[in-house]
Specification:
alpha+beta; Hepatocyte Growth Factor; seven-stranded antiparallel beta sheet; 9 helices; globular; disordered C terminus; Apple domain-containing protein; signal
């Protein structure tokens, strides 16, 4: 895969207007084409290998400081997965109806299959991409195929949900031979109907419904009742960044309040078995960009820090091409997500599945700040609230540890992503060396209590409750903020 910088990494001169944030068509067209896969027709089950999220993120990070080398082989734009020698061997009978007469045309006209497709409810958490097509998907980031015992959209959805990275699935009926066709011995055997489910690691489109089947000797494999669905759920959280924010389009930011340009450039990662719809690729590029800029500062020692990244699926003529990431030195509101697509000549490029992440920044603890133990001020909360047991179990933590109040306070200070923590040792005064189980969070206490059930602190021996502290309730020596204490 190729990946290029949209613009020079460092801006030596501040322009009077923001740098263009339109889709960089040169960047996209110089990259490798997306790898499109057509699932095999002669297998009941197939599991495809897709690069792990950590591998995709590492590749994105590496692409920031060096242009990756070309693959030794030419890029593959489309491929079938699997064929084998024909033997006239008996194939497993499918569970679907067989047309009479047993012809491809009669199969495609089966009302029973059409009714199954058009009456199937869209699963919760998904959007229907197409229904009742006579073609299955040839798309990117193929994750596998499963043959089911019925036309089972919820069952196919469940398979997708059980596979990390799956964001789309395709349910369809396929006319297959009851024998493995041989050109001379059994060229056109009787048919059976299989219900098939394929799962995908990138969003899909109706334009990718172009696998109409194929010939096996003189037997015509055809497809009917093809439905596809994209997952609506936002991408996962990423350590060191705020939770993803959904955008209607791509960010097109103005100059900031100081008339400075905050746009830092873009990266494009074509979809393949090595690159899916993995927003961690964008956040890794953002982090690596800051590292690169810090190591290559301007003459005055200044450098831009990536504070905000917008990642989205870029499609060409309706076909998803890859993951496009734009980086900025400040966070921008959703109202600036106004680029929904552009034309290059007569070809339309569109933006979808657009999300933004902001880098979590933790302010330094200022000197001379009054920090009360067991009460709260507008800027912090030190032991005033306790999470209820159900909230303790539900809230995501970045890590956990055992220790007394001072130890856990220091553990939070030592982790750059930690903004608050809790302990099930619910006694704020007295024996500070008592050990508790501590959990550490990327939200301030004010945000946590706004989202999770809690109560005002009271001493209890019930360790299913957890007392909350902001990160700046303890200093670098582990001293807690007691009443009247000045830092």
């Amino acid at each position: 895969m190729r990946s290029f910088f949209t613009l020079p990494v460092l801006a030596a001169v501040v322009a009077a207007a923001p740098r263009p944030q339109d889709i960089d068509f040169d960047l996209v067209e110089q990259a490798a084409d997306p790898v499109l896969v057509t699932p095999a027709i002669d297998v009941a089950t197939q599991v495809a290998t897709v690069a792990a999220v950590t591998e995709q993120a590492a590749a994105a990070s590496a692409a920031v400081s060096a242009e990756p080398a070309m693959n030794s082989a030419s890029p593959v734009t489309k491929r079938d997965l699997g064929t084998r020698d024909s033997t006239c061997a008996k194939q497993k009978a499918g569970k679907g109806p067989v047309a009479s007469p047993d012809t491809p045309e009669a199969f495609l006209a089966l009302d029973q299959l059409s009714t199954l497709s058009t009456t199937m409810a869209t699963p919760y958490g998904y959007s229907q991409v197409f229904a009742n097509q006579k073609a299955s998907l040839s798309a990117s980031v193929y994750m596998g195929l499963h043959t089911l015992d019925s036309y089972d959209v919820p069952g196919c959805q469940s398979i997708c949900d059980q596979n990390s990275g799956c964001v789309a699935f395709n349910m369809y009926a396929e006319r297959d031979p009851i024998l493995d066709p041989n050109p001379t011995k059994c060229p056109n055997p009787a048919s059976t109907t299989n219900y098939k489910c394929t799962i995908w690691g990138a969003p899909v489109s109706v334009e990718q419904a172009n696998n109409f089947g194929q010939w096996r000797a003189s037997f015509s494999v055809v497809i009917a009742a093809s439905n596809a669905y994209n997952k609506d759920a936002p991408p996962p959280s990423v350590s060191g960044f705020t939770d993803p924010v959904g955008l209607g389009g791509a960010i097109n930011a103005p100059l900031d309040s100081n008339h400075q340009d905050t746009f830092m450039g873009s990266k494009f990662f074509p979809f393949s078995q090595d690159q899916g719809f993995t927003l961690e690729s964008c956040t890794s590029a953002c982090t690596a960009q800051t590292t690169y800029n810090k190591a290559h500062p301007n003459k005055d020692g200044s450098f831009k820090t990536c504070a905000f990244v917008n990642g989205y699926v870029l499609s060409r003529a309706g076909v998803p091409q890859g993951l496009y990431c734009s980086m900025y030195s400040q966070t921008w509101a959703t109202s600036y997500a106004t680029n929904y697509g552009q034309y290059r000549g007569s070809v339309r490029y569109t933006v979808s599945n657009s999300y933004a992440y902001s880098v979590v920044t933790r302010p330094e603890i200022p000197a001379g700040v009054y920090c009360p133990q067991g009460r709260s001020e507008a800027h912090k909360s030190c032991g005033r609230y306790s999470l209820l047991p159900a909230s303790v179990a539900a809230i995501p933590s970045i890590f956990a540890a055992s220790g007394d109040l001072s130890t856990c306070g220091l553990d939070c200070l030592a982790h750059p992503d930690c903004l608050a923590w809790s302990t099930n040792y619910n006694k704020l005064f007295g024996d500070d060396e008592e050990q508790g189980h501590c959990q550490f969070y990327t939200q301030r206490v004010a945000d946590i209590i706004g989202e999770y059930d809690h109560k005002s602190w009271e001493w209890t021996r019930d360790d299913s409750y957890a007392t909350l502290f902001d990160y700046d309730c303890f200093d670098q020596q582990g001293n807690g903020c007691t009443e009247g204490f000045q830092r």
